[in-house]
Specification:
This protein is α/β, with parallel strands linked by helices and 364 residues long. 38% of the residues lie in helices and 16% in strands. It has 15 helices and 16 strands. Strands 5-4-3-6-7 form a 5-stranded parallel sheet. Strand 1 and strand 2 form a beta hairpin. Helix 7 packs antiparallel against helix 8, helix 8 runs parallel beside helix 14 and helix 14 packs antiparallel against helix 15. The longest helix has 22 residues. The radius of gyration is 20 Å and the shape is globular.
C-alpha cells in the first residue's frame, strides 16, 4: 500500500474507487462540495489542494480548533473564509448534524473508518445513500502506518490530485524505509509504554494507552513491543501505574497537546510553546504519585510527543520521534522536526509556526 505507482496521471471521471471499508465508490465527476467528518483531515487536503485546502469544503467538524488551536489560527490567518464553513461541532466519534450536511448539497463525504459505527447507528450513512451522496472512508488510526499514506493516495485519486498525492507518499516511503533499515535486526525488541493524553484529566489520572491501533501501532511499526497491546482487551483503555511498573518498560513516552480543558496538565506540544514550558510540564508529571518508581523515569528514558500524530496524515513525523526516543544511538542524527518543516514547506502552503513537537524529559 505504501509503494507509489509508476506514474501519476489525472483522474478520468467517472472513476470507481475502493475505500478503506472495502466498498466500491463511483464518482461521476470531480467532487467540488465536500463534507469532512473529522476536521483533522484538512491536513490531508492541504497536501492535495495546496493553494487552498478549504476550497471544496462545505461542512466539517473543526477538531483542529479543539485539539490544535495554534495550527487552526495559522490556517485561518491565510484562509479567513474557512471561519464561515459550516462547523458541525462534534467530536471525532462520528457524530454528524445531518441537516447541516444536506443543506450544503455535498457531492462527497470524507469520513474516518473509526467513525463508521456511529455514522451507521445514527442513520447518517443510510440517509446519505438515499440521497446518492457517496461516503469515502479513509483511515489514519486503525492501521496508521500503512493506511495514512494510502489514504492520501485514495484522496488524490478521488479529487484529481494524484501527482500531489504521489509526491507526498514518495517522501513518506523514503523516510519510513530509512527507519526500517535500521530497526529490522534489533533484538531483543525494546518494551515501550506510551501513555496517550497523559495529564489531560489532571496529574492524578493514569494511564490511558493504545493497543494495536494509533500510538500502539506506531510503536510496533518501529520494531518495538507495545506494552499496551499485551494488556488491553480492546483498541484503547486504562492501565494502572502499578501494572505498568511491573511490566518493566525500557522507555516511557507520553503524548500531549494544548487542549482547552481546565484540568489539562499535559505536556503542551505543538506550535506556540517553548522548550522551557515543555520542561516545566515534564517536571510536574514526574511528581505524580508513584511515578518516580518507573525505571525509565529514573534512568532518563522518559519522552513526550505531540498527541495528534496518532491519527494524522503526517504521522511519519511521529514515527520518527518514536524511533529517535526508542533507539537514541542509531537515530542520533534523525531530525523529525526538520521532516515536519519539509512537509509544511514542500507539500503545503500552510504558514509555518514555531513550537515543540517532541522532546526528552529534562534529566534534573
Amino acid at each position: 500500500m505504501l509503494a507509489a505507482s509508476a506514474s501519476a496521471v489525472a483522474t478520468t471521471y467517472p472513476v470507481t474507487l475502493t475505500d478503506f471499508d472495502g466498498q466500491k465508490i463511483t464518482l461521476a465527476k470531480e467532487p467540488q462540495r465536500i463534507v469532512v467528518q473529522d476536521g483533522r483531515d484538512i491536513l490531508a487536503l492541504a497536501l492535495l489542494d495546496r493553494a487552498d485546502p478549504f476550497q471544496r469544503v462545505v461542512a466539517w467538524n473543526n477538531l483542529l480548533k479543539k485539539s490544535d488551536g495554534h495550527t487552526w489560527q495559522l490556517m485561518l490567518g491565510k484562509w479567513p473564509q474557512a471561519e464561515h464553513i459550516t462547523d458541525m461541532g462534534f467530536s471525532d466519534k462520528g457524530e454528524v448534524n445531518l441537516e447541516s450536511v444536506i443543506a450544503q448539497r455535498p457531492d462527497l463525504m470524507i469520513a474516518q473508518l473509526r467513525s463508521k459505527p456511529s455514522l451507521t447507528q445514527t442513520g447518517v450513512l443510510a440517509k446519505l445513500k438515499q440521497l446518492n451522496i457517496p461516503v469515502l472512508f479513509i483511515d489514519t488510526f486503525k492501521n496508521p502506518v500503512k493506511d495514512a499514506p494510502a489514504s492520501v493516495t485514495l484522496l488524490g485519486e478521488a479529487l484529481n490530485r494524484e501527482q500531489e498525492a504521489q509526491q507526498y507518499t514518495d517522501f513518506y516511503q523514503q523516510h519510513y524505509q530509512a527507519i526500517q533499515d535500521k530497526v529490522r535486526t534489533v533484538s531483543p525488541k525494546p518494551r515501550i509504554f506510551i501513555e496517550a493524553k497523559a495529564g489531560l484529566a489532571g496529574l492524578e489520572s493514569c494511564c490511558f494507552t493504545h493497543g494495536h491501533v494509533g500510538w500502539g501501532s506506531m510503536v510496533e511499526a518501529v520494531g518495538a513491543t507495545n506494552i499496551g497491546s499485551e494488556l488491553l482487551p480492546g483498541a484503547t483503555g486504562e492501565v494502572s501505574l502499578e501494572k505498568v511498573i511491573a511490566m518493566k518498560p525500557d522507555a516511557y513516552i507520553v503524548s500531549g497537546s494544548q487542549w482547552a480543558s481546565k484540568n489539562n496538565a499535559a505536556v503542551p506540544f505543538g506550535y506556540g510553546v517553548t522548550q522551557q514550558q515543555v520542561d516545566v510540564a515534564f517536571n510536574k508529571m514526574k511528581q505524580r504519585p508513584g511515578f518516580a518508581q518507573l525505571q525509565p523515569v529514573k534512568e532518563g528514558h522518559f519522552y513526550g510527543v505531540y498527541h495528534n500524530f496518532y491519527n494524522h496524515p503526517w504521522n511519519i513525523v511521529g514515527i520518527e520521534y518514536l524511533a529517535k526516543f526508542i533507539y537514541p544511538q542509531p537515530f542520533a542524527q534523525l531530525d523529525p522536526a526538520n521532516s515536519w518543516h519539509e512537509i509544511v514547506t514542500r507539500f503545503t502552503t500552510i504558514p509555518e509556526g514555531q513550537g515543540v513537537l517532541g522532546s526528552a524529559a529534562p534529566q534534573k
